[in-house]
Amino acid sequence: MEAIPLLTLKRLPQYLEALNRLQEADLKMVPATKIAKSTGVHMTQVRKDLAYTGVVGTPKIGHNVDELIQAIEQCLNWNDISSCFLVGVGQLGKALMGYSELSKKGLRIIAAFDSNPDLAGTYYQGIQIHSMAKLSNLLSRLHIHIGILTVPAEVAQEIADDMIAGGIIAIWNFTPARLHVPEHVIVENIDMSSSLAVLSRRVAESLHQSNS
Amino acid sequence: MEAIPLLTLKRLPQYLEALNRLQEADLKMVPATKIAKSTGVHMTQVRKDLAYTGVVGTPKIGHNVDELIQAIEQCLNWNDISSCFLVGVGQLGKALMGYSELSKKGLRIIAAFDSNPDLAGTYYQGIQIHSMAKLSNLLSRLHIHIGILTVPAEVAQEIADDMIAGGIIAIWNFTPARLHVPEHVIVENIDMSSSLAVLSRRVAESLHQSNS
Q: What is the pTM of this model?
């Protein structure tokens, strides 16, 4: 399986979003220029990125919309549902447990874990919450490869280590902690704190400038 | 007000996280080496970043923990609560409306907006939801500068344009859409789709490799 470059991978969901809209509008064929226009990505880049899907366009007519959607979903493995575990049933964890968009993007949370004993055995959004003690056993029994991490930052590394010991090879990290993991483990960070830091500071700088 | 480099800004919340833990453990002074160790950032970089806070350390002893926390929060403008509007009360919007961490990081959602007429006039987590028709009037009346965007991708640009016309200078964009905005407007993207695309593909590549 060919390794698709990082930035191409990050753009594929944007193309998919645009293509889904074109499909809803009953468009059958789409030129790269149209995808470029609606995503704001340069046409040359769109062409390069789409080449990774293996779908070949017709000159002056473009790509078949249905075929391209299917090919991108296959590239991203989104047509295949992967089961995953979520650890840390706080506000953010609960939000993700209720976020149905995830399953459209190939990810299904099949069990959750939390250190709060009151939560053990309860359900949220139809997903059972287990005690942390059960994590390692369930990970290996169910052959789970992906873990979502929504615990407090101070325990993130420790829990990540437990996940990896249990067979997790990919962690979707929503904590501000930077995880240290073995080379074979994939970590994707969603860092709301960093993003908010940039936003808040830039606003302060901007307001300060316009007042001075 | 000095412009702090992007990557420094993104790291400041990590230092803050580490410092808060040290403060809880009753530590008074902290050397940069300790911050470096607990965040995984190189010591030289930690020193450079901390210089932007204006707090001066003592050789061999380090920085005063309380002073450093306060200085970082001031750099990020997190000690000052900014009011903001949220547009798009779907699953993600609701999750953010219930996410109390935001107010600890200087952001308070004071009103929400949605195109669904059934939601207009209702409350969620104590925050009133208004019809879209009220957005522009309330934006200018309340002098709001920050908008959180959690609408479907296909209307993101249009709503962003409305926000900016009403006086918004910073958009926290949770949609997969890439926004085109005037130069003075700050956009910070939280792109869960791109992140999930990378994660899913890398897992597929990794599993494929170990099976072959």
A: 0.86
